[in-house]
């Protein structure tokens, strides 16, 4: 019982806190628990409010609701009524001061009823609302809210908000067709909030399915969980079938709502002196007397509204505190990303320097694969060094297996002795007609996608640095025939040997696709780096305009450094392909000797036999050894020698080239060297900027200034809201 009393005692305090939040316009940032009265014009909304509050709301067209009205009733020892205006969320500071200065003279007791229409006229004037369309000044509706607070020892704790009634036809000289949509949008702005209970006022004497307000409520409350129907004007329902239909609504047998329907009879124009008890006697008649007593009459409705408001306030208060705290933290993060205000050169340079510092930190993390401290690297495409290593691994694997124009022979598949003049000679550079090819760029991108690296952006500025020739042929077979043809085209007066130029020409032909493959690979390297640079710049610079201005200034030097990396890669290709074959690597001779040994072993395999007493040892006749070497023709020996030397050198050249390509063209030129494009935007660059360029980049633009003002204003309001809640 004590716990229940404590809960009840806490309700007024919570409700007062919510009212204070509403006065601070916190409702524009977070949804507040509230009861909102909505309905079509002539639905009985004004009469209902009068019955609930005792204040006579005018019913004439000129004074119909043109603004939201908050009616708050509070229990207090002192009887008093206060009226003031809460400025709208978009009100200027001058307009706020003007509205807050409004202090109407409020007559005591019953005299307020007769004085209220004149007070409303004053309010519309203060809000700048025009009531005559012939006037060219003012607006027809206002975002400002009229607050009426009624206190007394017999008042209950209740706050309801009245919004303009929905209408379908404009009134000549008063409203326009545009005002129809304006009011609908105003009503929507209230009913869409998740903490709003919609009090839908519906005249009982019309088919409620024709009432637009129910359709509007259903739009934002599809399950009907926060819509309460209030049926008015039951005295105008005379047909028994219509009365039954109304009773079925109240009993939940028709168009049910979770919060149900209430049936009330409001004061009419002739009922000014009629009390609630007299009005509620109407429900002692049939068929209304058969309805549950807690669903009929103003007294029952008021009790339900008080309990409902207390319930949603108590339930949502902890969530409200958490949401305000989260919004405040979000505002602070946005302000931090905007950086400090920067009206002069010193603050502009400091602001830009901080951005450059963050960029350099992220660059360092990206190159060292140090990803965990940075949220940016949750996107795999931003993990620069990982992407480049994976890309290079796939490129190297393909390059070593498919980079040559023709497959080398293995001892296990060695061809028969070539016949020098048995077949027509085909040019070494003439490709076979049975070759297949792939789009190498697509292949590399597909490989990256298997690592979760997907870049959907296209960068037109990289077009001149990439190649359109991206098809790469698979290696052909028949290398011994090709060597034969190559030899016949270049043989000289060599005695059982070959011209050293032959090996150079053969290597150049075998590496014919290198340059094309390298350009495709380097294009993808540049694309990864470019994606990282643009993404990182926008990540560290919250102001998109500043990021775009920085990029516009650094783009040309960045592209120049890209080009230097591409040129270095091309240079390495040319060195390998067009310089005479040469190596100091001792493994070259070793590989050649190994190849010769394998060929000899294969030739003698058929001549050898095994003796049981030697287990796995094989025995050869020395005469057979001599016979094998004697029967091999000079041509066969020569072509095998060319093949083995070309194969051994090609393998060494590929390994050497792949190392040089990555270390020089990628790592040094593009990533870690002093002329890397990643070093263009840095703190040193900021220090060296001239004042004019600095101001053009870092000077705060109008959109950023406006956003800062909005965030500062929102932060101030949310801090005040937390003080109200926690006090």
From TrEMBL:
Cellular component annotations (GO), alphabetically ordered: membrane; microtubule; mitochondrion
Biological processes annotated in GO: endocytosis; intracellular distribution of mitochondria; mitochondrial fission; peroxisome fission
Gene3D superfamilies noted in UniProt: P-loop containing nucleotide triphosphate hydrolases (3.40.50.300)
Name of a matching Pfam family: Dynamin_M
UniProt KW Transferase keyword: no
SMART domains: DYNc (SM00053)
Dynamin-type G domain sequence ranges: 29-318
PROSITE patterns documented for this protein: G_DYNAMIN_2, GED
GO molecular function: GTP binding; GTPase activity; microtubule binding
Residue stretches making up the GED domain: 639-727
Keyword list, A-Z: GTP-binding, Nucleotide-binding
Name of the featured protein: Dynamin
Organism name: Coniochaeta hoffmannii
Taxonomic lineage of the native organism: Eukaryota, Fungi, Dikarya, Ascomycota, Pezizomycotina
């Amino acid at each position: 019982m004590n716990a229940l009393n404590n809960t009840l005692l806490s309700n007024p305090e919570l409700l007062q806190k919510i009212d204070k939040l509403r006065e601070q316009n916190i409702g524009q940032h977070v949804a507040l628990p509230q009861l909102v009265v909505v309905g079509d014009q002539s639905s009985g909304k004004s009469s209902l409010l009068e019955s609930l509050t005792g204040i006579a709301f005018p019913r004439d067209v000129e004074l119909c609701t043109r603004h939201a009205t908050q009616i708050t009733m509070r229990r207090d020892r002192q009887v008093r009524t206060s009226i003031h205006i809460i400025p709208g969320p978009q009100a200027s500071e001058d307009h706020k001061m003007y509205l807050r200065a409004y202090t109407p003279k409020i007559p005591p007791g019953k005299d307020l009823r007769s004085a209220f229409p004149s007070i409303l006229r004053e309010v519309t004037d203060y809000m700048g609302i025009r009531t005559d369309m012939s006037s060219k000044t003012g607006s027809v509706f206002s975002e400002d809210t009229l607050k009426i607070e009624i206190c007394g020892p017999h008042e209950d704790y209740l706050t309801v908000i009245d919004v303009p009634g929905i209408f379908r036809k404009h009134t000549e000289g008063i409203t326009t067709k545009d005002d129809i949509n304006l009011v609908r949008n105003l009503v929507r702005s209230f009913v869409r909030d998740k903490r709003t209970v919609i009090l839908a006022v519906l005249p009982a004497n019309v088919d409620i399915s024709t009432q637009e307000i129910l359709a509007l409520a259903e739009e934002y409350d599809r399950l009907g969980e926060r819509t309460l129907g209030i049926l008015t004007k039951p005295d105008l329902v005379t047909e028994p079938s219509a009365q039954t239909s109304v009773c079925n609504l109240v009993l939940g047998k028709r168009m049910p709502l979770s919060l149900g329907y209430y049936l009330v009879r409001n004061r009419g124009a002739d009922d000014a002196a009629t009390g609630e008890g007299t009005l509620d006697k109407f429900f002692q008649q049939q068929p209304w007397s058969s309805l549950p007593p807690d669903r009929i009459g103003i007294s029952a409705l008021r009790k339900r509204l008080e309990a409902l408001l207390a319930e949603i306030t108590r339930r949502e208060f902890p969530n409200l505190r958490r949401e305000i705290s989260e919004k405040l933290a979000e505002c602070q993060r946005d302000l931090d990303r905007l950086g400090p205000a920067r009206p002069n050169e010193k603050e502009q340079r400091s602001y830009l320097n901080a951005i450059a510092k963050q960029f350099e930190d992220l660059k360092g993390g990206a190159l060292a694969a140090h990803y965990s401290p940075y949220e940016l690297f949750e996107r795999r495409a931003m993990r620069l060094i990982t992407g480049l290593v994976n890309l290079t691994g796939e490129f190297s694997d393909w390059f070593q297996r498919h980079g040559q124009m023709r497959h080398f022979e293995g001892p296990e598949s060695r061809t028969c002795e070539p016949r020098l003049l048995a077949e027509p000679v085909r040019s070494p550079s003439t490709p076979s007609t049975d070759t297949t090819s792939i789009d190498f760029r697509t292949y590399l991108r597909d490989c990256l996608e298997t690592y979760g690296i997907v870049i959907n952006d296209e960068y037109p500025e990289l077009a001149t640095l990439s190649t359109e020739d991206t098809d790469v042929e698979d290696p052909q077979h028949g290398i011994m025939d090709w060597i034969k043809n190559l030899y016949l085209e270049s043989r000289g007066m060599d005695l059982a040997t070959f011209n050293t130029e032959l090996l150079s020409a053969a290597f150049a032909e075998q590496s014919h696709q290198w340059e094309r493959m390298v350009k495709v690979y380097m294009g993808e390297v540049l694309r990864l780096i470019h994606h990282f640079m643009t993404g990182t710049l926008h990540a560290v610079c919250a102001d998109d305009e500043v990021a775009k201005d920085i990029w516009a200034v650094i783009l040309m030097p960045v592209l120049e450094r890209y080009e230097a990396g591409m040129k270095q890669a091309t240079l390495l290709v040319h060195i390998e392909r067009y310089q005479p074959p040469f190596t100091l690597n001792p493994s070259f001779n070793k590989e050649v000797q190994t190849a010769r040994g394998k060929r000899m072993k294969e030739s003698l395999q058929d001549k050898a036999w095994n003796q049981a007493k030697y287990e796995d040892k094989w025995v050869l006749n020395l005469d057979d050894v001599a016979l094998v070497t004697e029967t091999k023709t000079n041509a066969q020996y020569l072509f095998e020698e060319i093949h083995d030397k070309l194969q051994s050198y090609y393998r060494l050249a590929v390994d050497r080239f792949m190392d040089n390509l990555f270390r020089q063209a990628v790592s040094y030129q593009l990533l870690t060297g002093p002329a890397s494009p990643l070093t263009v935007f840095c703190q040193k660059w900021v220090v060296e900027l001239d004042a004019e360029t600095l101001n053009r980049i870092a000077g705060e633009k109008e959109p950023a200034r406006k956003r800062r003002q909005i965030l500062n204003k929102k932060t101030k309001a949310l801090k005040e809201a937390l003080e109200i809640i926690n006090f």
